[in-house]
Each structure stands twice: as structure tokens, then as C-alpha cells.
Amino acid sequence: MDMLAGKVKKTSQNLDSAMNPTDVLDRPIRLTARDVTVHYGAKQALHGISIDIPDRAVTAFIGPSGCGKSTFLRCINRMNDTIEGAKVGGTIKLDGEDIYAQDLDVVELRARIGMVFQKPNPFPKSIYDNVAYGPRIHGLARNKTDLDEIVVSSLRKAGLFEEVKDRLAEPGTGLSGGQQQRLCIARAIAVGPEVILMDEPCSALDPIATAVIEELIDELRENYTIVIVTHSMQQAARVSQRTAFFHLGNLIEQGQTEDIFTNPVNKQTQDYIMGRIG
Amino acid sequence: MNALVVAGVLLVILGISYQTGWSRSRNLVTTNGVTVHSRPQYHGTFTALWAMLPALAVVLLWAWFGGDITRNYTVSLIPTDTVMSLDQMGLNNAINRINSLASGYGVTGELAPYEQAAGDALRSFNFITFAGSLILAIVAGGAGLLYARSQITARLRARNQVERAVNILLLACSAVAILTTVGIVASLVTEAFKFFTFINPIDFFFGTVWAPNNAGGTNHGQYGLLPLLSGTLMITAIAMLVAVPVGLMAAIYLSQYAPKSLRAVAKPLIEILAGIPTIVFGFFALVTVGPFLRDVGNAIGLQVSATSALTAGVVMGIMIIPFVSSLSDDILNQVPRTLRDGAYGLGATQSETIRNVLLPAALPGIVGAFLLAVSRAIGETMIVVLAAGNAPILRGNPLEPVSTITVSIVNQLTGDTDFTGPQSLVGFALGLTLFVVTLCLNIFALYIVRRFREQYE
Question: Please, is B277 exposed, middle or buried when counting C-beta atoms within 10 Å of its C-beta (0-12, 13-18, 19+)?
């Protein structure tokens, strides 16, 4: 426990020195969710979630397994549409536009809101084709040179280019787990999203690969709005500026990461941070 | 009746010996309080194995050699001069008559003087040998039981021995499957070689005329494989042209688009298609599809035979659809959900996801399914017998009647066959050809599947 507190302390100091000390909520809000509910068949998975997600900052969702944090994340780019029997209520707006509106094009929405999954899931294609896939289906490149440029810059932004530049034609599935996950991040970046959702992106990785990804997330924050689901509190403390704590399908508490970890208001949040739940 | 008695006796031996071993093992634990290596079940099985195997051996030995012994005894009951006067068939007949008398069925015609006495003697011989072998089996089983029982101690590794017995049993079962295949191939090869003593292999494999002279005599006729092979390949190609697109798209619809409730109904319905006997499909081809295709052809000014490569191919394709769709559906469902999510997460539409991600990932399995379907089509017989027109002529027009390897095997082997001339022996050569073709296809399928799997995993 002492060890954890120490880590949190240290991280918050780092954050303090690294960031604007004012609450990131002062920044423009990209995503607003109001009273979002999700039912899987008869079972209610989320009970009225309301949250604002600020531009160019990392927002972390933490909470014990099955608390609904991933479910909520999947509402933001409408991935729950692909699950049979899932029903979403309430409103989620991206830049003031209801993403559950009748006439909204899901394909376009998902191009604006990219996603990185829990398990690295590169397509059974070459490294190049993995990254080029999104730009190709959305027609983002006019010619081969354009496409090459997008692929290279995406791989660079994901911090993978130097490691794979000589083997772009090799299958993406041949990379190590951490490299695969960065490939998936590059793949998401290549489409030019504004928001990147990450669903426990490090849970299948070893500590070293995790550290690399966390560093990457910190860099990506400058250009993207990032929402990350994690079950590691240390990770939330290290990478995020705002944290939301979920428990049993409810959003219990949200605020600046520093406040949540050093000074939680809610008893349940306290218990979770102290390691008494989950 | 006798078989039932034997089975009953064996079961009793099994039960008693298992129980003996089990309770002995229990006693070890309760009386000595020592650590026993194996659980009582293993000691029970161990004892049962030791009792069953000798008993079973006795029964099997009698089953193998008993027939000959009984026959020799029966012959000895017939007066020697009568035996000498009879030919093979007459002797068999005499033996059958005595057998009938012995089992109490009676015989037609007048009884020869020795027959009634021989029947009675055979009846008591049968009873004595049966009872004798049964008693011998019981004794052997009992001996095994006693031996096993004496072996049961705390340190006996009954578990390991039972495991080894299970291992051997499984090995034997797979050996049966393999040896059967080997045996079939061996007999195909030897008979095919006999055929090649009549007909030059070059004339067979490269001949373009199929005209066996079934009347016999010194002129055997011509046995060119090519007309049959071309017919087979043509029909198979047409069948695959029908089955692959329809089957694959049905699989895609079922696995990706169909709501759960529809899928629950549609999948079994499609699989029922696979359960329809092929003769029914052949009938359907002959009566419905053939005339329909002919009429359609006439309407657009094409000369189409009612029985043709097209008819047989189309119907065979319909028959294979469930094969392709069911296998492909399973394979598509095995593609990890994370891959689909990855594509959706990038903003791919459903059909883009299927075309660019799902199908490439499932490709090795799907290719395997296709090649299995091809093997099936090549070996299919009943539909082509009825619907292909049975015209073993080398030609490239699918609208005309053709014949296939399977149909020719049927033609050559039905009716009176004595397997002395090329007319019937050619069946083996054709069968061997068919076997080699499907074997090559299967090997090719395995190769494809392995190759792609290496790339993707």
C-alpha cells in the first residue's frame, strides 16, 4: 500500500511539472455523454453515465472487472452495434453532434474515433497493408506516394517505424506483442482520427512493452483526444489527466487524476484505490 | 443364441473380476492403512483386464478355428466312398444337409442312410465343443483373475498399466482404420495390374476411345480413360461453379448477417440437404432439372440434351452446397472476433470487413473445404449414372451427354462378373485412378492449408 501511494505521489509530481496545472476540463470538450444506459438483452450493463471528455488529454476509465468501463468505451464509437442484443440509451455527442442520430454514418464516425483493442489484433496481412487498410477503404490517399507517406508517418507516430522499416512486407502477425499493439495504434492513427479509444491496450503485454506504449500515449496526447480503459491504477495515474471510476455499471466519481488518486471523495473510490474492491 | 450366451458369460467374468480387484484394493487401504499407489477403480480395471483377455482369447480362437474343425468333423461323418464320389459343390451340399439336421431345421428330399446319424453326432459335437470352449474361457478368465488378484499390493502400479492398456486399445483401433485403407489400396493395385496384363497401360491412360467389348472373346475392345476423365472433370467443374459461390455466400450470410433466430433455423435446414440420398438427387436431375434445362436451351436456340454434363453438374453442385456452406460457416465463425472488431473500429463496412479481413483469414480453411467438396464430386456416382447420359465420348461441350469414371465402374461391374477378363478388371484400374486423383487433391488441400496457416499465425 505504501508502495502504491509512493508511486502515485511521484507520478502526480511528474504530472504537475509536465502539465498545465489548471484542470484540463478548461479545454474545449470534445465528447459529452448524458445518461447513457446499455442493456445486453434483459441485463442492464450501464446505469446513466454522464461525463465530459476534454480535447487533447488522456481520460482514463478505471474500475474492477465487469464494471462497465469497456462497455461505455464501446458506446463512444458505436462498437456495441456489432453485438447482438445490445441496446444503448441516452445521448453521446461528439463536437455537439449526436452520434446515435438516425442519419449519422457509423463508418464516418469510426473513422473519426479510432480504437485500439485489448488484445493486439493485426490483420493477417503485411505490416504495410495493416496500416494502409484504413486509408484505402476511406480513400485518403490519391496515389501510391500519398499512401506510402501516410503509412510511414503513422508508423513513426506509433514509434514503430525504426523497428520495422526493413520488413514492411512481412506479416504483421510476426511481430512481438508490444510491436503488434503499436502496429494497431499506427493503423488507427493512419485514418486520421480525432479521438482514440484504447481498451486495456497493455493488458496482454509485458512490463517493458507496456512502458513503451504508455510513453507513446503521452506523446499522442498532444494531437489526439484519448480515452483509455485500464484495470491498472498505476497506469491510469501515469498516463491520464482525468480519471473516471466505474463500479457495477455506475460512474462513481470523476475528476483530475491527481485528485482521484490522492483525495477521492467517494468511499467506494477510496476503497478501490486502496485495493479493497476488485 | 450362442453368441448371447458367450457375451453374457464374458460380462459376468468382467463384473466379477472388476469387483474382486476393487474390493481387494479397498481392503488394502482399510486393513493396513498404507498408502496405495492406485485408486481402487484402477485395481478393478487391472483385474478385469487380466480376466477378460484370456477368456476373450479362448472365445476368439474358437471363432477363428472352430468352423474348420467342425467342418472336418462333419466330413468324417460322411462315409468315405460317398465323399470320394462327390465334387466340391456336392460335398458342400452334403455338409449343409447335415448341418440343417443337426440344428433341427430338417431337410427336403429323402434322407441318405448315414445322414440322420451324422446329424445327431454333429449336434452333440457342437454342444460339447461349445460348452467346452465356454468352460475353457471361464477357466482362463478365472486363472487370470486369480493371478491379478495375487498381484494387487499397495505398490502395484495398476494405474500405469491400465493407461498402457488403454493406449494399446486406441492404437489398435487406429490401426484397423489404416490397415483397411492399405488393404483396399493393395487389392486395387494387384487387380489393376492384372488388368494391365490384358491392356497396355499407355492405351488405357492415353486412349481416347472407350469401347469395351463386353461380349467376351479374344477381342477385348478399347479402354481409353480420357473420355471418362474428361467427363468427370467437366461435371466436377460445373458442380464447383454452382456450389462454391452459392455455398460460400450462404455461409457468409449465415455467419455474418443473419439474425440469430434465422440462423438457428436455416443452418439445420441447409444441412438437411446433405442428408438427402444421392439417388434422390439423381432422380430429381433426371425428371425435373434435365427437361427444364433442355426447354430453356430450346427457348434460347441452344441444343441441350436432357441428360448432359450440365444437368449432372448443376444437380451435383446443389448437392454439394451444404458441404461447402456448412464447413465455410464453421471456419468463418472461428475467425477471432477481435479481427472483426479491428476492421469495424477503423470504419470498415460489413462487406469490407468480410472481403478484406474475414475471408483472407479464413482462406486456408475455406480452400480445404472446397477441395473436400471436389473430392466428393469426383467420387459421386448416382447422380451421374442417372443424369449424365452415359455417353463415354471425348468431347468438350457440356450440353451433350458424357460419362464418368464412376459410371463406367458401375457399368462394368454390374451383372455377371468373374474378374478374369479386362471387361470387369478395368473397374479396378478405374477405381485406382479415381483413388489417386482424390488422394492428390487431398494432399494438395493439406499443403495449401498448411502453407497459408504458417503465414497467418
Answer: exposed
Measure the CA dihedral B172/B178/B180/B181, to 10°. Answer: 180
Instruction: Judge contact between B342 and B357, C-beta under 8 A.
Output: yes
pTM of the predicted structure, to 2 decimals: 0.72
Contact residues on chain B for A116, CB-CB shorter than 8 A: 345
Give contacts of A115 with chain B, Cβ < 8 Å.
341, 345-346
Give dist(CA B23, CA B417) in Å, integer. Answer: 61
Pick one of 1.10.1420.10, 3.30.160.250, 1.10.3720.10, 3.10.180.10 as the CATH number of B210-456.
1.10.3720.10
Domain tally, chain A? 1
CB A148 within 8 A of CB A125: no
d(CA B441, CA B447): 10
CATH number of the CATH domain containing A94: 3.40.50.300
> Is the ipTM above a cut-off of 0.90?
no
- Kindly state the greatest CA–CA separation across chain B: 97
Q: Which of A226, A179, A206 is nearest to A73 (CA)?
A: A226
Nearest CA in chain A to B351: A137
For chain B, the helix, strand and coil percentages under 3-state DSSP, each to the nearest 5:
80, 0, 20
pLDDT in tens, B128-178: 988 998 999 999 999 999 999 888 888 888 889 899 999 999 999 999 999
User: What are the per-10-residue average pLDDT scores of chain A (278 residues)?
Assistant: 43 43 71 94 92 94 90 93 88 93 91 92 91 92 93 92 93 91 94 94 89 92 94 91 93 92 91 80
Taking an 8 Å cut-off on Cβ atoms, the answer to whether A191 and B338 are in contact is no
Pairing of strands A58-62, A242-247: parallel
| Residue A63, in any domain of the structure | yes
With respect to residue A173, please indicate whether it lies within any of the assigned structural domains: no
Of residues B339, B340, B346, nearest to A191 (C-beta): B346
> Could you tell me which residues of chain A have a Cβ less than 8 Å from any Cβ in chain B?
77, 79, 82, 84, 106-111, 114-119, 121-125, 133-134, 137-138, 171, 173, 184, 187-188, 191
